[in-house]
DNA sequence: GTCTGGCAGCTGGTCTGACCAACAGGCAAG
DNA sequence: CTTGCCTGTTGGTCAGACCAGCTGCCAGAC
């Protein structure tokens, strides 16, 4: 006889599973409201506490969203999913992974290199946001905090221009821990002005390469730019 | 007067937030057990139902894990995060249509390209695992399932050879959602034998390039290999 | 001595029933 | 037509209870 191990799945998990499948399969349209907790209690034949635990799980995964507290949950739309918990998953991953800064920088180079390559391949690239941030940076002289913020927006705009949501997601997650170190490096500079000027020029050059649809050149420039940024931190 | 909107955060969310921060900050080491629900009830001064809702959220995010049902929760390890919620995030993204498969393939190219590049730069590369998998694939004729499994191990070995933990973690998450489509493509083949042969040769060529410390060539070969794999799926 | 059985005290899983605050709608008095 | 109240619904929270499964201890049987 070969017996098979007994499986015990908690009720809240089964409830969550069914709801999850209903959402992902599209039988509950994005944006529509979920049934009230008391209704679900009847539908599944479990107590409200059980239903609530299932809902908390769905909420944490970003498949269900509460616009305001105390308002009924809605099925998440695609865009909301990537903006919220999906990004958190990678933020948590990188924080718990405790990867050294050099690894994160390497990862960032790979992501952004691929992003600008993809952006350059597009027939019509939307780079308005990126260009706008370059202008912002041109207007900054020695305010490293403001510069760093513009820098974040610039690089995210680059990745957004690629139109690749997966790249964008991971980029969002990796940008944060790495940005902290950048800011520290900039702050440690005696005279930040020439450095900020140089970085701004590099940004402009990257945009130029993408506009010229030269993906290889753009990728090279991005990689050089990023590695240069963290050279000091990495020693 | 400029008033600021009143913020109301549910108790379960605040409990989850505190626990999450404790986990991510490392004050609860990975693998260690969380306090029992009744202890947390006392610590936070809330009812057990509230604590449980917070725990369900952490569990859904993958930060807390129950080995068996009815066993106390433990703090997750990084690898478990990439295998769990981060992977699910991609799966949900795909199913909800927030990102096409081609985006994930593109991401995978970027990650693996960077990985083999980094591996080639190392003075002494450890490619034994990758080579072993190539041998396994050489021994397979038409068993696509076994081939796919060896393929997974091969590509993970490549990324592991780069020594970059961040790349590895993200790769773990993206590999499976993408692998499902690969398997479907292979199954759809009338005669898989010549295809598997070709893929095996490509794998061997990639290993060769890394051993020759030619990162550029290795990256090119990896990218071509991966894109070729999914050409059918992408149409 | 070792092994067995059973008890006691944990844990998580679930339920019941209750109360409150916030919101939406209807309805009546101004 | 507005104001204001009343009511029913929703989510948020609580207290208390019970069960099932696990763990460790200890006494009795061999």
Task: Please describe the structure with a list of short key phrases separated by commas or semicolons.
homodimer, mainly alpha, Four Helix Bundle (Hemerythrin (Met), subunit A), 2 domains, two-stranded antiparallel sheet
Verbal overview:
Chain A is an all-alpha fold and 235 residues long. Chain A has 2 domains: 11-80, Winged helix-like DNA-binding domain superfamily/Winged helix DNA-binding domain (Arc Repressor Mutant, subunit A), CATH 1.10.10.10; 84-234, GntR ligand-binding domain-like (Four Helix Bundle (Hemerythrin (Met), subunit A), Up-down Bundle), CATH 1.20.120.530. Helices cover 72% and strands 3% of the residues of chain A. Chain A contains 11 helices and 2 strands; from the N terminus they run αααββαααααααα. Chain A has helices spanning 11-24, 37-44, 48-61, 78-83, 85-97, 101-121, 128-138, 144-162, 165-188, 193-211, 215-234; strands spanning 64-66, 73-75. In chain A, strands 1-2 form a two-stranded antiparallel sheet. At the A-B interface, helix 1, helix 3, helix 4, helix 5 and helix 6 of A face helix 1, helix 3, helix 4, helix 5 and helix 8 of B. Chain A binds a DNA duplex (30 and 30 nucleotides) through residues 8, 10-12, 36-38, 46-50, 52-53, 66, 68-73. Chains A, B: Pfam families: FCD, GntR. Chains A, B: Keywords: DNA-binding, Transcription, Transcription regulation. Chains A, B: GO terms for molecular function: DNA binding; DNA-binding transcription factor activity.
């Amino acid at each position: 006889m070969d017996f098979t191990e007994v499986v015990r799945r908690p009720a809240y998990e089964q409830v969550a599973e069914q709801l999850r499948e209903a959402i992902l399969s599209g039988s509950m349209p994005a944006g529509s409201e979920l049934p009230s907790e008391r209704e679900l209690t009847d539908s599944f034949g479990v107590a409200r506490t059980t239903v609530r635990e299932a809902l908390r799980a769905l909420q944490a995964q970003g498949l269900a969203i509460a616009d305001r507290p105390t308002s009924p949950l809605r099925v998440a739309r695609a865009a909301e999913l990537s903006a919220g918990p999906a990004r958190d998953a990678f933020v948590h991953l990188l924080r718990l992974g405790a990867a050294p800064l050099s690894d994160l920088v390497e990862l960032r180079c790979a992501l952004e290199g691929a992003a600008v390559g993809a952006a350059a391949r597009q027939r019509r690239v939307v780079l308005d946001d990126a260009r706008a941030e370059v202008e912002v940076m041109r207007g900054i002289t020695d305010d490293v905090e403001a510069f760093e913020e513009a820098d974040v927006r610039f690089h995210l705009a680059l990745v957004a221009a690629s139109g690749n949501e997966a790249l964008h997601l991971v980029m969002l997650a990796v940008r944060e821990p790495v940005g902290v170190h950048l800011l520290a490096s900039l702050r440690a500079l005696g005279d930040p002005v020439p450095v900020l000027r140089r970085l701004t020029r590099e940004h402009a050059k990257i945009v130029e390469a993408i506009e010229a649809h030269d993906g290889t050149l753009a990728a090279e420039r991005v990689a050089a730019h990023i590695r240069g940024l963290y050279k000091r931190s990495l020693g």
